[in-house]
Structures are given as C-alpha cells and as structure tokens.
Amino acid sequence: MEKWRAAHRLLRYSSKNLFDRQLNPNFRNSTHLSTSGMAYNMNRFVGNLWGVHCRCLSSVVTATQRNPLFSTINSDDIRYFKEILGEKSVIQDEEMLDAANSDWMRKYKGSSKLKLQPRSTEEVSQILKYCNARCLAVVPQGGNTGLVGGSVPVFDEVIINVGSMNNIISFDKVSGTLVCEAGCILENLISFLDNQGFIMPLDLGAKGSCQIGGNVSTNAGGLRLVRYGSLHGNVLGLEAVLANGTVLDMLGTLRKDNTGYDVKHLFIGSEGSLGIVTKVSILTPPKLSSVNVAFLACEDYISCQKLLLEAKTRLGEILSAFEFLDTHAMDLVVRHLDAVRNPLPPSHNFYVLIETTGSDETNDKEKLEAFLLRSMESGLISDGVLAQDINQASSFWRIREGIAEALMKAGAVYKYDLSLPVEKMYNLVEEMQIRLGSAAKAVGYGHLGDSNLHLNISTPQYDDTILAEIEPFVYEWTSKHQGSISAEHGLGLMKANKIHYSRSPEAVQLMVAIKKLLDPNGILNPYKVLPPSLISQS
Amino acid sequence: MEKWRAAHRLLRYSSKNLFDRQLNPNFRNSTHLSTSGMAYNMNRFVGNLWGVHCRCLSSVVTATQRNPLFSTINSDDIRYFKEILGEKSVIQDEEMLDAANSDWMRKYKGSSKLKLQPRSTEEVSQILKYCNARCLAVVPQGGNTGLVGGSVPVFDEVIINVGSMNNIISFDKVSGTLVCEAGCILENLISFLDNQGFIMPLDLGAKGSCQIGGNVSTNAGGLRLVRYGSLHGNVLGLEAVLANGTVLDMLGTLRKDNTGYDVKHLFIGSEGSLGIVTKVSILTPPKLSSVNVAFLACEDYISCQKLLLEAKTRLGEILSAFEFLDTHAMDLVVRHLDAVRNPLPPSHNFYVLIETTGSDETNDKEKLEAFLLRSMESGLISDGVLAQDINQASSFWRIREGIAEALMKAGAVYKYDLSLPVEKMYNLVEEMQIRLGSAAKAVGYGHLGDSNLHLNISTPQYDDTILAEIEPFVYEWTSKHQGSISAEHGLGLMKANKIHYSRSPEAVQLMVAIKKLLDPNGILNPYKVLPPSLISQS
To answer: Residue ranges of the FAD-binding PCMH-type domain (chains A, B) (predicted)?
Structure first.
C-alpha cells in the first residue's frame, strides 16, 4: 500500500491539443484523398493521416443523392445576403470555404460555395426565412469538431456558422445559471466560470474549438457526464430558429418549469436538423477545490464492474470520472506516444482511472484512500497509484486520452462509439477478437461509468474483408444487447441509415413526422440523422 | 455554538400521511360542494375542508364547454371493453367511479361513467385504438394525487387507470437502472430499491399513492431535485402508447444514447395529453448512509440567498435539501399543528432547513459543522440547531411539510406554485403583502435550492375582492420577472389558459402543432395543458 500517496490539489490535464490541428503539421498537410464526389464513395474512403495508411471511423454509408428539389445559389441570393449581413459576413473565398467544407478528420467533404456568419438571432432568422422560401438547403456549423459528418455540407448546402455570436449574456451566481450565445467556445465559458467560482457541467477534449450551440445540438457527452448528467438535465432553456425563420424563445433560466410541453428537448441532440440553436441557458455547478486521480489495475473485467459499483456506493457524491482501458490500449499508448509510461508493472489485463472532485481536501482524500484500501484487500484492485501532484494526475489522464492518437499511429483503425449494458460491454470486444482472429486487434476502452465503450479495431492497413467481418456484426450485436450504436457522437451523415439498429420503427416514424412538421422543405442539415429515404417520402 | 450537536444517522420524516386520506376522517367526510357542472363554476368553488371555510388553489378557470365532436359511450363500447379486458377491469360501479372522478382535494369533479383498468401495454393499445376510432375522449389516471385537475375527467371522458400495471421488470445493480411498469407506486419502488442499496432520484409527499407513470407524465419535482435534478435527466427511457394505439418502445436503459431525436422527452411533463406512459426506465442513485438535518434562522432574505450560495459551494456534493420559510409560515405551523414547536427562539424573520446526504458520517458531519460555524461567524445565520437523532430530524421536516396543512386550518387560502429567480423570489411576497394590506397575510416558503416559491395568501374567509387583487397580478409579476407560473405542479385544467404567462406564442404554437400531430382527434386528456381554444382551431 505504499503506493497510495497523499494527493494535492490537481487540475485535470487538458486534452485540447488532441483536437488542435495547429499542433500537428502532419495533420494539416496530410494527403487529402477526398473529392467533391465523396458522398458517393465515402464507404471507400481511405485517409492518410499521420503518414500511415489508415481508415478512420469506418462505416459503410449508403450512397446519397443530392435532393433535386433544392435550389442552387445565384447572384441574387448573394446580393440579398450581403444586404442583410454586410460584405464581410458573406464568405465566398475558396480557401475559407475549403476549411468549412471539411470536418477536422478530413473524412467528410462538401462543396458549399457560400458560408454565412450571422451576428444575431434576427440575422439567423432572416437567412433561414429566405432559404426556406428559396428552397436552399443549409448546414448549421459551430466549431466543426464533430466525428460523424454532422457539421459539414454533403453537397452545396449554404453553411451557417454562428461563431460570431459569442457573447455571454448573463450569469447568476446564486442559481449558477449562465446564459450565452450559441457561438461561445466551450473553453472560453470554462475560463469565464472559473473566475466566478463555477464550472461547466460538460468538458470535452475538443473544448478549445467546439461551441456551446454545437454541444447542445449534438447533446455532447464528455468527461463530466458521470457526475453531472447529460445536457437534457443541465440545459435550462434555449432559443432556436426554425426552418421558416420563426424564433422560438424558450430561454428560461429556471430549474423547475412545468408550463406545457418541454419542447426545448427536441433541439438538444437533433444535430441542427430541426432548428438552429442561437442562445443557451445552462445550469453550472460550483467549482470544488479538491481533485484526486488514481490509476488502478484490475485482473479481469468483472473486477472493473464490481469496482464501479463499489465506487458509486463508497465514493458516491465525490466520484467525477470512472474510465477504463484494456491491456491492448495500454500497449498502444506506451509504444506509440512519447513520454507516456505505464505507472504500474505491465502485467495487468485492465486499468481503471478514477477521479474524485469534492469540497474538502482532507475528507475527500481519507474517503478515497479508505475505498482504495478496501478494494485492494477484497482483491478487486491488484495494484494502483494515487497522483500526488498535478503532473502525475496529468500523466494518468494522458494515458486514457492518448489512446485515440496511439491507435491512429499504429495503422488502420475502425472506430465505434457504443453504449452497452456494463456487464455485457467487454463481451463484444472479446467476441470481436475471436471473430477477427490474428488479422486484427480489438481494443476496448471508454467511459465505464457511463456504460460507454469505444471499440477500436486496429490493423496494419485497411482491408475490405475485415470491414465486412466487423459490419454489420457490430451493429447487430449492439442492437441484440439493447445497446446504442451512437453513445455520444450522434448519427450525422455517418450513421443516418443505421438508426434502426437502436430505435424502433415507430420511434423513427415519429422522428420523421416531427422533422416534416418543423422543416417541411427539409432544408435543415439534409441527409443527416434520419434516413434520407424516409424524409423524401410524402 | 453549543447548539451544534453530533449528528446520528437519520432518515427523513415521511410525509405520506399528509396525502393519505385514510388518516383524516374529516377529509374523506368533508362536505363536498362540487357538482357535475363544476367545470363551469370552478372559479367560484369554495371547499370546506378540515371543517373551516376555505378555498384551495385559487385560480380563475375559463368556463370550458364539452367538445361536441366526442362520442358518448354506449352498450357496444362496454361490450367491446369487457371482451378485451374481462369483466373485472371494466368499472361502472358508481361509488368506485365517484372516487376516480374526483381529485384528492375534491376541487375538481368529472362525470365519467366508465373506468378501465388495463393490465398490459397491449391492452392500453387496444383501448386507445378503439377510443380513437370511436372519438371517445379519455383521461389517463395514475395515483390521482395531482393538484391542478390533470388526472380527473372534466366531463364524461373514459378513465384509463394503469394501477394494475405495477410490475418491476428489471433492476441492474451495476448501472443502477430500474425498469418498471407505469402503475408502480413510488413508495413501493423506494422500498424495493432500499433493499438493493439504492434510492429513487425523486421523493414526494404523495409517495404512498402516486405512481411512477404519473410522476413521469407530470415531470414531478419533489424533495430531491436540488441534488439529483429533474426527470428529464433521470428517465433513461420509456414506453408510451399514442392516441391511435401505436406503441412507442423507447425503453432504453443507457445513460448515453444519441440515436436520433430524443422523443421520450415529449412524454415527460405533457400530463398524458400526448400519450399514455406504460413503462419507465430510470437511473437510481446508490443509497448513502449519512444524513444530517439542520434548522437555521436568518434575519433577512438576502442572508438566505447568500447562505444558499455558500451551501452550494461548501457542502456541494452532499447538499440534498435547502428549504426556506418565513416567520408567518412558522407562526401558522406553531399555532395550528399539534406537537409542532419552533426549535429556536421565535424572534427570527426567516428559517432555513438544510439536509445533507453522503457516504461518510464522520466526514460529512465535520463538513457540515465547519460550514455552520463559518456561516454563524459571518452573520448569515443568527441561530440554529443540528438534529441529533431521527426524532429531531423528523420534527424539523414536520415544520416545513406542515405548512400547507396549517394554512388550510387557518382559514381561506389562495395557493400559487411559482418558479422565480432566487434574488427576486421574496419580493413578490412583500409586494403582495403591501398590495393586500391588512385584509390578508402573504406567506412565503418553498424549495429555495430550486428557486421554487410556494406563495400562499391566507385570509379568514374567501373573498372575491381579494382574488381580484391577487390575479392576474401574481401571474403578470411572475411573467415580468421571467418566472414560471407552474414550477412543479403542471398546468392541468387549472392553468391551461394561463400558459401564455410563461411561454412565448411561438412556443405554444409549436406545442399545439405537436399535440395535433400526435393526437389529431384530441382524445387524450382534453381541456388540459393547452388552451382548448387553440386545439379546436383547424
């Protein structure tokens, strides 16, 4: 037990640089194999990132046709937009459009000729009213950090980027309610609140670029969900603009408000396909001073499960993260990332990262140490270390957060973001490994505290035969075990046609009916979220 | 400071008996002044409860006409229902119907001639499909403990009571996910979970009678919201039957699931007007062993506010209740309730009840005592006691929970359930008192931690002049300060026509459109939630 050491106040390591293209020149300069016709051959897209032959986020996307009912932009449209927005907010410059047409992984690429940058709700309303009347399709865009092709055009949709709408409107310290515009960058909100003694209830690796409007529109999960719950619980109100330009003011700031149907939830997680979120009201928790991070080893998956249950009961109110990785993930990180090392002897099958956040350093430390001692004695943990300073805590988080990067460096990778009942979660990794044999390595890690598995299949190079072994098996297995094929990333373009694996036909039918009710011309983020074939049916 | 005493493990006092008619023979036998034509004269209803002349939950309800498009039941209908449900589940007995036609306060009374008791989702589906085809209006009913007339018929609607659907389907200890049928009584779920080492994320005074389907349909708030948030965050999935009999299976059990629009939220808080909830999947927190209750005095409202902010920051993760009452509420309780006494000298303007719940008794106690000492030294608290056993804790809760009963005993009472920004909340009580002068006493108490004010106007007897002074002033004031006219009770029949005070016309229009989409014949819980005039417009 000498490894359990006193913990100092720690700040979680920020993983912003994983998402910051500036830091990786290879990324920015990576060979870009996408073409303007990419939507037709996305299932054959092979990227070349970090200088290795790989394929990111594999999924067979059914070929999509441009909806012929949509107009194409003409000079009158441009003139109108310049009139209402001013010259500078109407972007036609090719280089600027190129960035907005691609997602950050350069997996998806559209061919939009126009990006608009409204500065107010009124301007968003005017744009949409016009586009709806002209039947011009649009794609709402925030920080463009999504992983499923939700925030980039598929064809020539008009890009509406709300990044210029980035004002904090109000903050109430008594209730902790923050009201701000949709274009506020998450990290800026985190900094603002830090000065007030509060935190955001969500935290993401992409926080340096992603915007709160996008977070809400995609119901972003992230690192604090196990503690503070989802945005459906934390978003108190929002303002959204419908396809026809109607401004829906639902910007309440109250925790309790049972006045009619709570329709704001329709806009949380609908990926901009029902309306464009323009303002957000969000409940923020007070900042707590004591943070501890432990890195632990378990010999089998059942011990990880039992440890989670113990942590929920015994750490209860101070538990703020419960992450896990298997030995394959650890091997990859240690092998491929500089200056990352396993703080424990390398003989374990599973590793768990536990973070606690509380208001009293002494009490929290005592509680955590008692829990660790007990878990060690009962055999749930076979080894472990408790961070004693911010650098150690950062190095533990770096292991967990470096897995995606290590996988990309190792070769081709097929990525799946799944929710599964905790007790069945790792069975999928094992079954997948048996299915694939020596041809590939199945790697499992993720947010165990939220039942969220990141299943990654690592191979030396991309291979159609392997993909055929993985899909649709992975979706069928997930569906059979009442899991979700989209835990925290949304469906976007990538999985619009996969929705039936996790939703009943009746539920999908209701979604389609709501889409048609709110956006009869289907101009908002077309081809995404719902199967286009269902939307085009009259 | 000798008043801060060591705390023992406490269980919160159960307020079930406040809602249990069996315990109060006066209630059951109280003169029942309602008539079958009550919907037309509800604004004149004067009840006689507990033997005093009083008027509960005052609100001017616009006279409602029976929708002539609805059919009336005939012998063929009865035959059909007996065929699918069996004789025993088709209730036509007058006495049994009488109970189901009235709410627990006997304020609202319908004249239904038929109550159906389905035992399965399939039976609910068959009933609704038939009623929709026949254009027979229905009212979904659970425990019938609502306060706004949402769960009783207005005219001759068919009552569908899901109380026979009361099975627990599954419980997963690792994730804490409980799946059960809608008719499960909340207290039974609490007992079941207690044996498993878990708790429900909501707790209500009405728990002995209310059902989880009704809790979800009304988005019930209650005593644990400040800690665990609303049902929009805690309900992981549900099954609902639409007006046309379509069964919507959205019974997911996952914390993260971004697969399309999260349409389950439409059924949380829509008071059965969009569908009947038949099954619920809910996230339950682990039971924590250490509970402490403190009863404190503050000299002014600003101190209560500051104390709340301090409690959120310093007690943070263990705070589980923050309730307040003014000196008028305390006077009423002490004067009208037997065996209730003020544990502090009676010279204070405000009182605050703080409860903490955590996993470590010693640590929690130290944390709470340090907070109390600090608050005393800074002058936020002028006096206080910390419960040292379960009886003391119960007696503190009895003060807070006895206010409604004391008000009823004191005379006529006009009750309003409002959400308001914390810093403005008590201004309304003060302004109301100035407005009413010596004719009435304005009493303020409620869930300060949730910004939820229970404003009660106490007068010796009911008086139209006083009502005219209160309404619409109270709604206008609430609206002007961005509050909600319906914090945790819903709109029901009582406030269907008041929705515009807390919702924009565009938001109401969207609600109406969704109602028409899901229930084109308007058979589900008619005349409730939304203004009937908007629903009948084609």
So the answer is: 108-287
